[in-house]
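Practice problem 4.
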């Protein structure tokens, strides 16, 4: 046995053995650094532990480190190319490439426009459709035709038809049209106005994350030097973001802002964001 092998064995023996379930508890409690260290130790002992690699990839994804996430999934694919979760990731990556092709545009002066997906408008529209169907079914019943039940019929109409349509209007007015990234800065097109922030006016740029099962968050936060100007928070959570091709969006931003730190929300909120106006999209 050579010296390098002996050294590796001594190093492996010194690493604490933590089960994946315990590491998952770290993640749920927001103890990201401890979870990452434990996973790195686990992968030192078992480099082909795909379950540990999957959790490591999840941590990368939930903290906006999409390039590292991709490399970790590639590593999983080399170990087991038929793994179900790996195949799901490949499908998601292909879907994002299609989103980049169909939902982004090249800007004339350089840069890229990312068309927004009005997720809340879509959800409200689905609720309105179901509400209309329910009301039509109710309207064909004998109870709806009875004059004594007129107030009940009006109440059902208001709840099932009017309320969802009002929700659609509110969601539409609050939604964004697109986000453009150019060499000059970033532009957020709201329904009635555009918000522009030049790169030179950005004092701090963070990829902000918050782990845990209750309220996980992932956002790009840009804080202007001028305290009177609202900070910009762009949601990047896969399930809620309006940005299509989010990894490409973040990559384009990083081309112009070299120093983007990945931080936890609690680390910056009190000092930089508390009491300050924030435009959240």
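Answer key:
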């Amino acid at each position: 046995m050579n010296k390098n092998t002996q050294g590796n064995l001594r190093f492996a023996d010194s690493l604490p053995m933590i089960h994946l379930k315990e590491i998952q508890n770290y993640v749920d409690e927001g103890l990201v650094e401890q979870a990452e260290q434990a996973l790195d130790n686990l992968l030192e002992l078992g480099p082909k532990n795909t379950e540990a690699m999957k959790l490591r990839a999840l941590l990368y994804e939930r903290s906006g480190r999409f390039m590292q996430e991709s490399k970790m999934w590639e590593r999983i694919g080399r170990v087991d190319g038929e793994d179900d979760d790996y195949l799901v990731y490949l499908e998601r990556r292909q879907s994002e490439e299609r989103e980049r092709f169909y939902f982004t545009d090249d800007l004339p002066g350089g840069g890229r426009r990312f068309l927004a997906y009005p997720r809340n408008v879509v959800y409200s529209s689905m609720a309105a459709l179901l509400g209309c169907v329910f009301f039509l079914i109710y309207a064909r019943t004998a109870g709806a035709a009875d004059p004594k039940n007129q107030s009940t019929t009006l109440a059902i109409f208001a709840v099932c038809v009017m309320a969802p349509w009002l929700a659609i209007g509110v969601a539409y007015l609050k939604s964004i049209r697109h986000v453009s990234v150019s060499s000059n800065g970033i532009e957020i097109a709201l329904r009635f106005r555009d918000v522009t922030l030049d790169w030179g006016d950005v004092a701090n740029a963070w990829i902000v994350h918050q782990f845990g099962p209750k309220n996980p968050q992932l956002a790009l936060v840009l804080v202007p030097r001028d305290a009177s100007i609202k900070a910009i928070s762009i949601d990047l959570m896969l399930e809620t973001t309006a940005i299509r091709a989010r990894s490409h969006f973040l990559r384009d931003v990083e081309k112009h802002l070299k120093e983007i730190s990945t931080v936890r929300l609690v680390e910056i909120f009190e000092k930089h964001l508390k009491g300050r106006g924030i435009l959240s999209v």
